[in-house]
Structure formats: structure tokens, C-alpha cells
Design brief:
The complex is a heterodimer of chains A (120) and B (1065). Chain A has 120 residues and is α/β, with parallel strands linked by helices. Chain A is built from five helices and five strands, in the order βαβαβαβαβα. In chain A, helix 2 runs parallel beside helix 3 (65-73).
Chain lengths: 120, 1065
């Protein structure tokens, strides 16, 4: 039997990116269980859906991805969160490491392989 | 003398004839039985009255009492005619038998002057004469034998008819009337005695009592005659005794003068010994027996007589029964003596009393005059300039002026800035501080006394504090050490004099005139006798061994005293135990053979007097040391009374000055009037006046300062040559005026400020007056830090001025000053000034008003910050737009291409659809990038200039845009960019807010400027202060020294106009 595919919550304020990311991840075996367009709904959906993985954009309209990650990991719960952005990781310095997320993947390089390298 | 001798000769021989005549009639009478007792009484009474009358006539020729006494005597002897055997003589004697009683009543009622003083007395006397004259005549008309009980009397020649009834009736009536009359007279005399003053009672008493009793008994005797002739005769005997006493008592009164004069002499001893007028008055009262006698002294200033209680007395309005006599010395009035009118009868006593009063008043005046001179000189001394210190309310010394005897500081400069209240002794500091505060608060002069230690000497000081500014007082210090000592000395000497008066320290000697041998001695203090005590006992004046010719002078004075009847006095000094003793002796004759010498030790008085004289000399000496010219001038006629010139000037010589008036010394009338006016003010205010004046001749001008010191009826002028000072002042004034003119001409702000902040007399120049709106007068003497510095900067300014004062190095700063229209920013420099006022240090504060420049600089700074900020904001916007737009599309494009690549083999159709979508996405990304690039800087502007760029803008605008005068030549790129962005921003705003139907854009060239205007027909009401777009334009235009204005009335469209210099032209 094929192992159960990992569930994913995609968080980004651009619909075109969300659609493109869903198609890419689903084609590589992930199950996209939800999409969120801002930080508040991302936290809400994460707590409701308990996805295995959150693909979380850094730049959101209401709060940034680092704050969302900090909020979710504050109470001892550690979902696998991968931050992403159209900018490079160097643009954020140590913010990624301090946020509680597993790591960072640039948007242009998103793939199951890159994510697996981060979450094991 | 001759008249008196003739009177006595006539009187005595007349009296002898009358007496012997009476005796002859008595012994030859056939109807009178001779009685030795009767005759003795008859002669005794008659001669007594005669003798008393002669004595009184001799001693008091002006007094009629003597005449009346002689009349009584004659009337009395007329009785003897009744002894005659001749009927006519007998009848006359019988008829006149009662007249003597009427004359006696007249004498008593007229006593002591011999004149009847009242109408009542005159009426009583006339009634007496009428009764006595008519009574016996009336009886004799009807009674053949009018002498009762007379057997063998001669015929009554007056008899008309023998009518016994009528005769009895008349004689009874006469007797009753006579008795009533006499008793009434006795009562009148009794009342007169009772109503008399003490002095009058003492003089009149014995005579009135004896006379009144005599008259009374005579009346009773008359009343008793019808009842019992024997008892009546007995009572008549008492009456006769009373009458007999009258002449003796009157004589005694007349002779009493000599005793009384001795009493006055004794009183005078008390008068001279430096005693007060009160003591003199008490002595005179006792001597005159007049407890209300008053000694008045003549006040020369008011022209009035004044009692010892100090209140004036009018000699014309004395109480009833009082008389006054003036006392003078060689026509110079000294005062007056007020006494009982009864004493008028004792002219000798009054003359002595006048002498005594003269001595007392003259001694008093001499003492007073000496004290006045002393006071006057001292007043003059005190008018000499004192130390003056100007202080602020807190005691800080601002300035001072004094000579070395007032100041104990070695380094005078160090005094300024010190706190005066801390310098004097602690208690006095507080006292001085309070007085200064009072002076400043009330504006009234305050006087304090304190003492201060100067080089180990305690000095008494008097300080007068007057307010001399808003917060500044001047302390005028006078050294009153000498005055204080003099007051103390005077008080001591006064106490000593009082102690002296407590006891009667006289030694009294009774000396026989013959041989001048001591008869009796009373020593109060024998221990201070100048010669051994035993030489007095039984010795003579010559035996005492008195120094020099003193004994002979005593003897001469004693003889003079006898000769004149006046007290003589002598002062002399002897040595006892090596010390001088001053003695005062008074010689008073007592009878013709003896005299009293009263010796008093007056050493203390003399010492005090000598002390006063010494002090007066000292004052003179001090005055002599003053380098001023001093003139004493009478107020009455402005004549020079005294002159002391320390320096003779070419304008005035002391020769012949005394006696001239101030008009006669050749001074200009204006100066004379100035002196007169000041003298008047000095007299009215009783205060020293200071004037300055100038005398001029071909050699030049002399400046003088005169102090005018009032002193009673005169004034002093103390003149000092102040030319040097004045010239220096004038030079300074000229220099100051020049500097002031220069200072007023400069646009710099100039202030001359004391290092304490207090501004000088001419403190601020024209420019600063304009800036502050203050006048020089308003600023003078005020505190620069408070008046001109802004409150926030006052402390800093004060600190900098202090640094300049301490280091002498100029200091600069920019602080706010108070301008007339609000605070001004001033860049100023503070530099030390050379001494422009003695004793004060000043700095010059010179500033430039930089308020406008600073505001412009500030605006420039803000504008620069806004431009930087606008650039930053623009970059942020670009980054965001890139990130949100083109970048996102490129990310999606990248993912699409990877997805298409993954599916190209398995699902070519899907891959084809993905590639098609990616192509569209790429086209959109390119378009967004182009739009972005245009927003950064329009390429058409760079490539082709403002005109095509504006056309491009107009084409893309959402409403019709009309372009006018679009330039065809190129401008410098910054100018073109600024004009382009003005139009672009304006068009954006029109599209967003104006609700306009069309816009007109014009660009013109005018005077080297590009005028850019964008006008719409929209709703207007735009507020350029809101929104960053317009502000950014303002900054952009300002950076090119251009201006931007917005005119946007509500409902009237909006017009944005920029003027931009085209700098290269």
C-alpha cells in the first residue's frame, strides 16, 4: 500500500501563486487541504485542519509569515512550516531560524524534493 | 534830701505846737478835769500818726498814705479845741470832734497807695466825712450843752433854740448812724482782707486788722453810749489802742523794705549759680512772698515773652490783680517779671526783683547763646559731604563714594559687588536691610544708627537710606561719633549740674563792716576751704591770706554793696590740694554794719562751661581744616556776616565782603537768584541744599558746588571748586555724545550693560530701540537680562557677561531677545568696555537680528528632509510595485514553465495550455515593467523635452487637456522635470478630486522664469497643506529657488502656478 500522502495548507495573498503551487505540489504527491490569503485565516485554518505541512508566504497583508509561525509554535505544537517568498533567504537574515519554521524555500524553487529536504 | 529835711522840720515843729497848744488848753480849761492818762494817750496818738506820716512821706513821696496820716494827726489834735474856755473856740472844737475818725477811715480804705481804688470805697469815705461833719453841728443847733456830762462848759454859740426833745432825737440818731457806719466800715475792711492775694495780705494784713478792730470798737462804743457811758468809755479805750497801733504798723511796713531787700539778695544767690529759670522763679516767688510771681524770657525769634513752661504770655492781657514789668539789659529785652499788683506799693523791692530777674535771664541767655553757636558749627560740620553707597535691595554694593575716614577697605574696587548687609555687624545688617526695604517700598527716607569698627576704633554712624531706583537705594553715611560723644558729655554735665542743685552747697559768712571781721560762719564743706579753717574764727578778711589782691577786692565789693544797696558778686579760682577750685561769692549788705558773704563751689559748672567752650573751639578748628570757602549770611537782608575762605579765587576776595549783600559781590544775577532760591528751600525744609553753578571770565570758566546750610536766622554757604570734576564730566559727555551718534547710525543692535546687567544711562542705540520698542529712558538703569533677554535665555546671557567680566575675553552667542512684536533671534557678541562711569564696569553687547535668516535656513533644512523623504518613499513604492507586480508574475511564470516541462512528455496538451498561459503572463509582466519605468522618469522627457512629454501626459489623461504655449526649446533638465511633475501631479489631482470637465495647461517664459500653470473648471476648495503630493512639488520648485502657489476658491476651479527660474539664462 502506498504511504498516505502528506496534507498541505498553502498560505499566500496572490491567487495565481496559490493555484500554481497547488498544481505543482499535488502533481508531486501532496494533498492540498486548504488555502489561506492572510495570516489570521492561516492560523485559523491550521488549527482547524492540522495539516502536515504549511507552505507559508513571508509577505502577507495583515502580518508577516514569521509572526504566523511564531504564533502557531508558541504553545508546544510544532507543525512542519516551510516559509517561502519571491525574495532570497539572505534578505531575511536570522528571522527564519528564530520563527519556529522548518526552513525556507524561494518561490521559484518550490518542489517536493526541496520541501522533503527540509522536513525529512 | 533838702525837701525831706524841710518836711521833717515843718512837721516836727507843727506837731510840737499842736501838742503843746492842746496841753495849754487842757491845763487852762475850766470845764475839763486834767487826766494824765487821757493827755498821754491824746499826745501819743496824735504824734504817732504825725511821725508815721512824716516817715511815709519821706520814704515814699509819691504815696499819699503819709499825707493822710498827717491829716489824721491834725484832725486828732483839733479835738483839743474843745478844752478852750472861749465859747467860739469851744464850739468849733466840739463840732470838729469826730472828723479824725472819718479821716482815719479814709486812710484805712486808701491803704496802701493812699488813693481810693474803687467807687464804693470813695462813697463810703464821703459818707464818713458827711456824717462826722454834720452830726455834731445838727446836735449843737438844739442842745445848749452838746458835750454830754460836761458841767461848766462854755456857751454853745451854734444854739438856735433849746429844744431838749429835738436834741435828744438828733443825737440818738447820729449815734445809731455812727455806730452802724463804723461797724459797716469794719466789715468792709474785714472783707477786703479776706479777698486779698497772699502778697497783698502779707503787706496789708496787720494794718487792716488793727485799723478794722479800732473802727469796730469805736462803733460799738458809740452804740453803747446811751446804755452805759462807763462801758462805752472802756470800749473806746480798746478802739484807741487799735488806732494807736495803725501808725506803727504802717511805719513798720515802710521800713520793712530793707529787710525784704536782704531777702531778695539771698534769693539772687540762688539765681546765678547756673540754675534754671524755674529755680530763679521759685527763688523770686519766695522772696516776694508772691507764690504766683512769674519770670518770663524774651524769645528773640518770635518776639514774645515766654513762661518757663514754654508757653507765650501777653503782658497786655494779665490776670486781674497782676502787674508786669519788662526786664532788659542796656535796652535789649531779656524778659519780664509778673507780680502781684499789691507789690506796686514796694517799689524798692520790685527794683531789686527786677535786678535779680535780669541776672537770671541774662545768665540763661548767655548759656543759650553758647549752646547755639556750638550747635550751629556742628550743623555746618555735618553738612560736609558724607559717604554714599548705592546698593540693590539684596544689599549688593553697586557703587560707592567716600573718603578714607568712612571706609575700612583697603582695596576699594573689591567693595563693589560685596553684600553691604554682611559687612556691618550682624544685628545692624538686618536693621539696614529692613530700612532699605522700607525706603524702597515707601519711597520715604529712612534713618538708622549703628556702629562699626574701623581699624580698632568704634565709630557711631548715622545712615540715611533713600530709594534711588526701582530696586536700588542709596545709603548716605555720616560719622556721628563726635556728635554722640558730645551728647553724652552734655548729658553727663547736665546730670552733674542737677546733682549740684540738689543740696545747697554754700559756705556763708557774716562779716562786720567795720574791720571786715567774721561774726558768724556756716560751712557746708569745710574740707575744701582754700585757707586753714582757724584763720576764719575771730579773724578778718585780710587775715585769710587769700591769693593776690583778692581780700582787697572783697572789701571793695562789700563797700560797693553798701553804697548801692545791691548784691555784688565775684568769681575767682583758688588751689586746694594742687587742684583749681572755682568759687563764686556774693556779698549782700545786712543793715548798715554787717554783710553776708555766700561762697559757692562752682568748679563743676565752670568745668562744664569750659568743656563746652573747648568743644566749640574744636568745632572751629575742624571747620578750619576743611578746604572749602564758607560764608555766613543773614536771611533778613542777605548780608555776609562772616567769611572764611580757604581758597581765594579770582572771582571773590574776602576783603570787605562782610556787610555786603549777595547782590553786591558782582556775581551774575542768575547765580545770585539760584543761591537765594536754594537758601529759601533750605530754610523751609530745614535741610541742606546743594546747587552747582559756573562763573566765567576771559580766563575761562570755574565750576562750583555750593551747599547751603540753614542755621536759624542765618545760612551758611560752603563752596567747593569742582571745575576739574566738571571738565572731566563734560569731556566724557562729549565723547559719549559722539559714540552715541555713531551707535545710533549703525544697524547693529548695541547695548551698554553693567556687568551686573544694569544698563547705563544711555543704554541702547537706535536699532535696538526700534527692535524693542523701548526708549532710552525706559531702559536706563534696568536689568538687561530681564528687560531685553527672553526669560529662557536670561541665565545664559548673564553667564556669558560674567565670563567677559572675569576674563576680559569677548563672548558670542545666539539667543532670543524680546522684540516689540515678539521674540527675535539675535546673534551677539559681548566685549568689555573701558571705564565709562566711575566705580562701575560695563560691557558692550552688539548684535544682529537673524530671525528671518534663521527661519529661512530652517525652512531649507525641512525642505531638504522632505525631498530626501520623498525620494525614500518613491523607492519604497517602486520596490513594492516590482514585488507585487512584475516579480510575482515572473515567479508564477517560472513555476508554470517547470510544470509544463514536467508534463510535456506525459500530457502534451496540458503542457501546451500551460505554455500559452505563461506567454500571456510574460506579456503582462513586461507591460507592468514599462509602466514602472515611466513612473521613475519619463523617457520622452529625457529624449525629446517638455513639450512632447506634456503631450504624452495629456494623451493619457482621463479628461480633455488643452495645452497652451508649450515650449519648443529645451530647458535645463531640472527645470523641465520640475515643470513636468507639477503638471503631472496637478492632472492626477484634477482626475482624482476636481470633478472637472476640462483642464488648461500652459508653460510661458517670463523674466528668466518658466511660468507653469494648470487650471481646471472643477469644484475648487483644494487645500495645499493637505496631502504630500503638492508639498513635494513645493520642495522641488523651492530647490530651484522657484515658488508654487495654489488658488482654489470653493466652486471656482483650481489654479496651480509655479514660477521656476531658468538658472542658466
Amino acid at each position: 500500500m502506498e504511504p498516505m500522502s502528506k496534507t498541505v495548507l498553502i498560505v499566500d495573498d496572490h491567487p495565481s501563486f496559490r493555484g500554481m503551487a497547488r498544481a505543482l505540489l499535488e502533481s508531486e504527491g501532496f494533498t492540498v487541504v486548504g488555502e489561506a490569503e492572510d495570516g489570521a485565516s492561516a492560523i485559523e485554518q491550521a488549527r482547524a485542519l492540522h495539516p502536515d505541512l504549511m507552505l507559508l508566504d513571508v509577505q502577507l497583508p495583515d502580518m508577516d509569515g514569521f509572526a504566523v509561525a511564531a504564533e502557531l509554535t508558541a504553545n508546544g505544537w510544532h507543525p512542519d512550516i516551510v516559509l517561502t517568498s519571491s525574495r532570497d533567504a539572505e534578505d531575511f537574515g536570522s528571522l527564519v531560524d528564530e520563527s519556529g519554521a522548518r526552513g525556507f524555500v524561494p518561490k521559484a524553487e518550490i518542489s517536493a524534493e526541496a520541501i522533503a529536504a527540509l522536513i525529512g | 534830701m533838702r525837701a525831706a529835711w524841710r518836711l521833717w522840720a515843718v512837721g516836727l515843729s507843727g506837731g510840737l505846737l499842736l501838742g503843746l497848744g492842746g496841753l495849754a488848753l487842757a491845763f487852762t480849761s475850766n470845764h475839763y478835769e486834767v487826766s494824765g492818762l487821757d493827755l498821754t494817750l491824746e499826745l501819743l496818738i496824735g504824734w504817732s500818726f504825725l511821725a508815721a506820716g512824716l516817715v511815709a512821706r519821706t520814704r515814699r513821696p509819691e504815696n499819699r498814705t503819709g499825707f493822710l496820716l498827717i491829716a489824721v494827726s491834725v484832725a486828732w489834735f483839733a479835738n483839743a479845741l474843745g478844752f478852750s474856755n472861749n465859747p467860739w473856740v469851744f464850739t468849733i472844737g466840739n463840732t470838729l470832734g469826730s472828723i479824725w475818725a472819718a479821716v482815719l477811715v479814709h486812710t484805712l480804705l486808701a491803704y496802701p497807695s493812699g488813693r481810693l481804688e474803687s467807687k464804693r470805697a470813695t462813697a463810703v469815705v464821703i459818707a464818713g466825712y458827711a456824717l462826722a461833719g454834720s452830726a455834731n453841728i445838727a446836735t449843737a443847733l438844739f442842745d445848749p450843752n452838746p458835750s454830754p456830762g460836761c458841767t461848766g462848759c462854755p456857751r454853745n454859740t451854734l444854739l438856735i433854740t433849746d429844744n431838749h426833745t429835738a436834741a435828744t432825737a438828733i443825737s440818738t440818731t447820729v449815734e445809731i448812724l455812727g455806730a452802724v457806719y463804723l461797724i459797716a466800715v469794719a466789715a468792709v475792711i474785714w472783707y477786703r482782707w479776706r479777698g486779698a492775694t497772699a502778697a497783698a495780705r502779707r503787706l496789708l494784713g496787720p494794718v487792716l486788722i488793727a485799723g478794722g478792730l479800732g473802727v469796730g470798737f469805736l462803733g460799738i462804743s458809740l452804740a453803747l453810749q446811751p446804755v452805759s457811758q462807763g462801758v462805752a468809755n472802756l470800749v473806746f479805750g480798746f478802739a484807741a489802742l487799735g488806732f494807736l497801733a495803725v501808725p506803727f504798723l504802717i511805719t513798720s511796713g515802710v521800713l520793712r523794705t530793707r529787710r525784704a531787700r536782704a531777702g531778695i539778695g539771698r534769693a539772687m544767690i540762688g539765681l546765678q549759680t547756673g540754675a534754671s529759670l524755674a529755680d530763679a522763679q521759685a527763688g523770686l516767688r519766695s522772696a516776694l512772698g508772691d507764690p504766683e510771681a512769674e519770670l518770663l524770657f524774651w524769645n528773640q525769634a518770635t518776639g514774645q515773652n515766654v513762661g518757663i513752661d514754654g508757653s507765650p504770655r501777653e503782658l497786655q492781657h494779665l490776670a486781674a490783680g497782676r502787674r508786669a514789668m519788662t526786664v532788659d539789659a542796656d535796652g535789649d529785652p531779656l524778659g519780664a517779671l509778673v507780680y502781684d499788683a499789691a507789690l506796686e506799693g514796694e517799689p524798692d523791692i520790685l527794683a531789686d526783683a527786677r535786678d535779680a530777674a535780669r541776672m537770671a535771664l541774662a545768665a540763661d541767655r548767655a548759656r543759650w547763646a553758647l549752646e547755639t553757636t556750638e550747635r550751629r558749627n556742628r550743623a555746618l560740620l555735618e553738612a560736609i559731604p558724607d559717604a554714599m553707597i548705592r546698593i540693590r535691595r539684596d544689599g549688593t554694593v553697586v557703587d560707592w563714594h567716600a573718603d578714607e575716614r568712612h571706609i575700612r577697605f583697603e582695596a576699594p574696587d573689591g567693595f563693589i559687588g560685596m553684600n553691604l548687609f554682611d559687612l556691618v555687624k550682624e544685628g545692624h545688617g538686618r536693621q539696614m536691610q529692613e530700612a532699605a526695604a522700607r525706603a524702597l517700598d515707601t519711597g520715604e527716607l529712612q534713618t538708622i544708627e549703628y556702629d562699626i569698627d574701623i581699624h580698632g576704633d568704634l565709630h557711631n554712624r548715622e545712615g540715611r537710606i533713600v530709594a534711588s531706583g526701582e530696586d536700588e537705594a542709596t545709603l548716605i553715611i555720616r560719622d556721628i561719633t563726635d556728635r554722640k560723644r558730645a551728647v553724652d558729655a552734655l548729658a553727663t554735665s547736665e546730670r552733674r549740674s542737677r546733682a549740684l542743685l540738689e543740696g545747697v552747697p554754700d559756705n556763708i559768712y557774716r562779716v562786720a563792716r567795720d574791720g571786715h571781721r567774721f561774726l558768724d560762719i556756716r560751712w557746708t564743706d569745710a574740707s575744701r576751704l582754700p585757707v586753714p579753717q582757724e584763720r576764719f574764727i575771730g579773724g578778718t578778711v585780710r587775715d585769710l591770706g587769700l591769693p593776690g589782691d583778692l581780700a582787697q577786692r572783697f572789701i571793695d565789693l562789700a563797700e560797693l554793696a553798701f553804697k548801692t544797696g545791691r548784691l555784688q558778686s565775684i568769681e575767682y579760682a583758688v588751689e586746694v590740694g594742687g587742684e583749681p577750685i572755682y568759687l563764686e561769692a556774693r556779698i549782700v549788705p545786712s543793715g548798715d554794719d554787717e554783710y553776708f558773704v555766700t561762697v559757692r563751689d562752682v568748679t563743676d559748672r565752670m568745668t562744664a562751661q569750659l568743656g563746652l567752650e573747648t568743644s566749640e573751639r574744636k568745632s572751629r578748628a575742624l571747620l578750619a581744616g576743611i578746604p572749602d570757602n564758607i560764608f555766613r549770611i543773614a536771611y533778613a537782608d542777605d548780608r555776609f556776616v562772616d567769611v572764611r575762605m580757604a581758597r581765594v579765587t579770582r572771582f571773590l576776595s574776602p576783603e570787605g565782603l562782610v556787610g555786603k549783600t549777595v547782590d553786591e559781590i558782582g556775581f551774575p544775577p542768575a547765580v545770585v537768584e539760584q543761591v537765594r532760591a536754594a537758601a529759601r528751600v533750605a530754610r523751609e525744609t530745614d535741610d541742606v541744599q546743594v546747587i552747582e553753578y559756573q562763573l566765567e571770565d576771559e580766563l575761562g570758566a570755574m565750576h562750583l558746588e555750593a551747599r547751603i546750610v540753614p542755621s536759624g536766622d542765618e545760612y551758611y554757604i560752603v563752596v567747593r571748586d569742582v571745575s576739574d570734576r566738571k571738565h572731566a564730566e563734560l569731556a566724557l559727555v562729549a565723547q559719549r555724545d559722539f559714540l552715541s551718534a555713531v551707535g545710533d547710525a549703525t544697524p547693529a543692535l548695541l547695548a551698554v550693560v553693567g556687568i551686573d546687567g544694569v544698563m547705563s544711562a544711555e543704554p541702547i542705540n537706535h536699532a535696538l530701540r526700534e527692535l524693542t520698542g523701548l526708549s532710552s529712558e525706559e531702559a536706563a538703569g534696568q536689568d538687561f537680562f530681564r528687560l531685553i533677554s527672553s526669560p529662557d535665555d536670561a541665565a545664559r546671557t548673564e553667564r556669558l557677561v560674567r565670563i567677559v567680566a572675569d576674563t576680559g575675553e569677548p563672548q558670542s552667542a545666539e539667543t532670543r531677545w524680546r522684540g516689540r512684536h515678539g521674540a527675535r533671534l539675535v546673534a551677539w557678541t559681548c566685549t568689555p568696555l573701558p571705564d565709562i562711569e566711575r566705580g562701575r564696569r560695563f560691557v558692550l553687547i552688539s548684535g544682529v537680528d537673524i530671525t528671518e535668516r534663521a527661519a529661512q535656513e530652517e525652512e531649507l533644512r525641512r525642505s531638504r528632509a522632505r525631498i530626501v523623504e520623498a525620494g525614500d518613499a518613491e523607492r519604497r513604492r517602486l520596490e513594492r510595485n516590482l514585488h507585487d507586480g512584475a516579480q510575482q508574475r515572473l515567479v508564477s511564470l517560472s513555476l508554470s514553465l517547470r510544470l509544463a516541462q514536467a508534463r510535456v512528455a506525459s500530457d502534451p496538451e496540458a503542457a501546451n495550455a500551460l505554455l500559452s498561459a505563461a506567454s500571456t503572463e510574460l506579456a503582462l509582466a513586461l507591460e507592468e515593467l514599462r509602466e514602472l519605468a515611466r513612473g521613475i522618469h519619463p523617457a520622452v522627457l529625457t529624449d525629446r523635452g517638455l513639450g512632447p512629454a506634456l503631450e504624452s501626459l495629456a494623451d493619457r489623461a482621463p479628461l480633455p487637456v488643452e495645452l497652451e504655449n508649450v515650449p519648443e526649446v529645451r530647458r535645463p533638465p531640472p527645470v523641465e522635470a520640475a515643470a513636468f511633475y507639477v503638471v503631472a501631479e496637478a492632472l492626477t489631482n484634477v482626475a482624482k478630486y476636481a470633478d472637472a470637465s476640462s483642464v488648461r495647461v500652459s508653460v510661458e517664459r517670463m523674466n528668466g522664469r518658466a511660468i507653469v500653470e494648470v487650471a481646471d473648471d472643477g469644484c475648487g476648495g483644494a487645500d495645499p497643506s493637505k496631502g504630500s503630493g503638492l508639498r513635494g512639488l513645493v520642495d522641488r520648485v523651492s530647490a530651484l529657488d522657484g515658488t508654487l502657489s495654489v488658488d482654489s476658491p470653493e466652486g471656482g476651479g483650481t489654479r496651480v502656478r509655479a514660477e521656476i527660474p531658468t538658472a542658466t539664462e
